[in-house]
Amino acid sequence: MNPQTETTLRFTGGYPPLPVIVVAFGLAALMWWLYRRELKFVGNRFAQVPAILRSLAVFILVLALAGPVLRHITTLRQLGRVVIAVDSSASMQLTDGTDEAKSKSRFHRAEDLLLKGTNPLLKKLAETQDVELVALRGNNTQRLWWHRQGGKDTSGDLPTAFELPATTPITNLDQTLRSALGPATTGTALVVLSDGQHNTTGSPEEFSTAVKASGTSIFTVGFGTEVPPPDLSLLDVSAPESVFSKENFQGRLTVNDSMPAGVPANVRIESQGKVLWQKEFITDGKGEKGFDFIFPVAQLPPPAPGQRDKTLRSVNIQIAASGDRASLEKTRSNNARELAIHLLEKKRKVLILDGRPRWETRYIHNHFDRDDRWQATLIFDDMADNAANGTLQKNFPKTRDDLLSYDLIILGDAALSRFKAENLDWIVEFVEKRGGGLILIDGQRGKLHEWANGKTASLIPVKFNAPVKATPTSIELTTDGQRFDALRLSDSPSANTTLWPTLPKVNWHSNVEPLPAAITLAKANQPLVVFRQVGAGAVLYFGTDELWRWRFQVADLYHQRLWMQLGAWVAAPPFQIDQKKLSVGTDRLRYSPGESSEIRVRVRNDKGDIITDAQPRAYLLHDGNEVATLQLEADPTHIGVYRALTPPLKAGTYEIAVAESPSAPRSDARLSLHVSDTGNPEWATLTMNRMLLEAMATNSGGRFLREEQAATDLPNLLQTLDRKQVITKETILWSSWWWFGAAILLLTIEWLMRKRLKLV
Description:
The protein has five domains: 4-75 and 728-756, no CATH class; 80-227 and 687-721, von Willebrand factor, type A domain (Rossmann fold, 3-Layer(aba) Sandwich); 232-305 and 312-337, Sandwich (Immunoglobulin-like), CATH 2.60.40; 348-570, 3-Layer(aba) Sandwich (Rossmann fold); 577-675, Macroglobulin (MG2) domain (Immunoglobulin-like), CATH 2.60.40.1930. 22% of the residues lie in helices and 31% in strands. It contains 15 helices and 37 strands. Strands 18-17-19-20-26-25-24-22 form an eight-stranded mixed beta sheet. A seven-stranded mixed beta sheet has the order 6-5-4-3-7-8-36, sandwiched between helices. A five-stranded mixed beta sheet has the order 10-16-15-12-13, with no helix packed on it. The chain is extended and about 135 Å long.
């Protein structure tokens, strides 16, 4: 819009304006009266002009005592930016009633709201705002239309339809909205038309809280019924990816029950037609309910004929209603799920060594010990007078091969002298040549300082300085630390960076500085968490043993998550196939359609040493046909390990074949990947998630609206986003050159005319 300027006259002098104006008028009148005496005998018709000029000059000069000032107020209006995001996930295909208004799908109702009618809502908003229309497509956004700068920047005429289907299998109200919004600026609004069924990674609540700080408001428009239709759905399956062949497989099923009360139903787990577990129940329509299941792994049927990977099994989980009222179910597409199970022969192993039983190492041991994927061994030094009789030496792995069978060593505040010389050699070899992971946890006794000298010096990534006075200090991530997922305590990267300094402070930390090639990941005034590659392995140094304080009031929420992530990251990568010369593994054992698998390969020579300049190749096979050749790249954390990502995988079974070099033949060992159809999460819950949509709006300072309210309420709410910039400029008249110039000019003209009229 064009700027509007308003000019007003103000008086800022040392005398009140009214008396000054009265005096100015009085003196001007006096000048006029005096002139009239001189003009009695002058007959020229211009004889009155000098009198007028003299009076005006006197008036201007006297008025300067009141300090006249001209104030110019210019108002610049900038149209608010409105980003309208439409959820195009599969759940938006649902209808919510039999009446004419609700017999259409949620997606078509959103289309009608924005694009239909004599004055569509999108057109109405574009008249006063800069508008962008985007569709949320799974984890991506698709821009449909925009109209900015009063139509100077537009993608064309107003669309009459979305011209895309609502078919994406997931709803992401975090990543997609961040992408749609872009750099947030004051005066921006985000309008989200959705049923609120966020069912993937990320936190919409954290995102909405973060955008409020930048002056952006979120207005959520909810589609869908809040009264659950009659339906049974399998919401979640919580079960381990792998299990030992001689153990029981157990987990928990979460079912949503919105059926009428009294309908018989059952949930069961079967494989190749064999029922492994089942449970009968009667529906009550009260929502979520859980079922714990357990059955011996030995009951699983043998692998299918021709299956090369004998450790892979697959089970089907189904829920169904029975009887006359079973047909009341809204949909049966959410009643089944397939689950892959990998049978393992060994767990990952962690060895925890400490000079005394500190809180930190005790809690760390508990975390690993409770995790089915790990086998944890904890050894504390009993400080026996003779180190040879102490628990460290007596319980330390007896042979070199025993130690090298571990994946991770966590070393606490233990003195170097409490270990045998050969034990130290094994630890160095474990890290440098075998690619193992080592985590160092410093302590106030400073025993780790001894490890910075001699044969173990290469394991220490820091230089120890004189101790500093202990004061409670917060921990914050460095720029490097923010890049590592292992340090992620929140699903949102920005929220994670903000979260770390808010966690309980540590009362003690060491005073160190990182050595060359070491990376500082976190600091507490001084470097606190330092990482460095050592040979083929990785070392992570912690300069405090007080992270256990993070458990205050939240128990294992942050402490356990951090240590399990660090363990998985620093430890030698797991390999499902681990032969003498070739090891092949994946980042996970269970995948869903559309996900990618990370393939890991490690190559050793005939002596068992890791080859750090190998050029392995991986081949992805589906039903015996090669679908991709994968170029592996060096792992930045573990030297000698090579990684590659597969293309997005479809449901089914895949095989990974590996060649040690581009010219070498493929190995006979094949790693199987099973991509299970986990069911469409869009059908798990059929109602609108009003709680989430309201939270997003409230956190950002916006409003939640039902779809019926949007057409009338939304334009009025968005009008508040018009930004106004007011520019005030003052012209000081009484001291300006042209104010006095005008008086001098008047007096000059008056003098010249007096001469012309022969009055002087």
